Amino acid sequence: MRQGCNLQNLSLYFDLPNPSIFTNYEPGIKNLRNLHSLHSFTDKYEFLSMLSIICNNIIEYNIIIGKSNEINPISDIIKLQPLEKIFIEFSYSNITKKFIQKIIKALEFRSKTLKKLVFKYLDFQSIELSFITKLECLKHLDFQYCSGLEQKHCKTLSKKKSQINYFSLWYNYDDVYDDVKLINGTKTMIDYVAGESLRRLDLNVVTLEIIREIKESCPNITFLHIKIEEEFQDSVSSVISLICDLSSLKILNIQADNYTHSIIRILGDCLRSVESLYLSFFVDLISFEYFTINCKANLKNWIIPRDISYFDNNTKGFLECVSNYQKVHNSLKKLGVRDREIDKEELKIIINYLMNQGVNVVSETSIALEMF
């Protein structure tokens, strides 16, 4: 700091030095842009209070809230900084409704700047969602592992259409109490975000009616990430068929519980426009072969089912099916396989053969980070 450090990114976790370390030298921390903080220790309150005064250009704020006291330093940063991205994780189960509402109230000060808002472990019972409509620049709205969603929390949203292009609603199924309320709440949220601006949608509450709404109201959606929970698998055939009818869809990521072989067979019969495909569920070799023989889509990026080796212990057979698919389509550029499989000696011949066919065989992790 004495040598003139121009600190722009700061992550706070445990013990902090004296705040004067950051203020006695120029420019020090005055030009801070990105702040990540675990808000569980009292020694941070003074520091966070200082930041809201001496900084004036923090655009990204990631915070994990561990207990419901000393809200003022957090709300002051939200109110006083030109934040464009906010991530808030509520890691403490007894955070009070008053605490959460004060954060929500502070977010309204960011109506002209905030573009991305992520809540993790939020209990919808504690909030009223009308504040979202006041965030005029919001493009990315993400609810991760949240609970308590009901239609009554979302009613005010339906009065105004959003300009959101990335929406994620990933429900915490450990807290599911009423599937009907959950579905109705999800439908109301979809009704709000649906429109020409929506490009990406992540959902783990997937019903035929919800997918139909997406098809009718989201003509430009290019990225769909879904998880078909066990509670909703009765209509899986119709759901997957309707998803395949989304003509604008280019990237499809499907997770599912159990051995849902019907999914990949329906994809083989119906998939057309998708270019990047990630399948994360159990698949047997016969169903996978059916897909590769019948699929009409010209896939460019593909992560083959991550659980195949557990089911059949025959990764080589799956890769041979991919090779036969490539002979017909000649479209595949990248193929992701399980990290532990890629360096196996018995797979080197078939992997080299795929490489000679123009397919870059990489670890599942690397392609998932890049594409999904």
Description:
This is F-box domain-containing protein. InterPro entries: LRR_dom_sf. This protein is α/β, with parallel strands linked by helices and 372 residues long. It has a domain at 222-372: Leucine-rich repeat, LRR (right-handed beta-alpha superhelix), CATH 3.80.10.10. It is built from 13 helices and 14 strands. The protein has helices at 20-23, 43-54, 72-80, 97-107, 179-193, 208-217, 236-244, 261-270, 285-294, 308-312, 315-329, 348-356, 364-371; strands at residues 9-12, 34-39, 60-65, 85-90, 116-120, 140-146, 166-171, 200-203, 223-228, 251-256, 276-280, 301-303, 334-337, 360-363. It has a 14-stranded parallel β-sheet with strand order 1-2-3-4-5-6-7-8-9-10-11-12-13-14. Helix 3 runs parallel beside helix 4, helix 8 (261-270) runs parallel beside helix 9 (285-294) and helix 9 (285-294) runs parallel beside helix 11. It is globular, with a radius of gyration of 24 Å. It starts with 8 loop residues before the first strand and ends with a helix. 35% of the residues are buried.
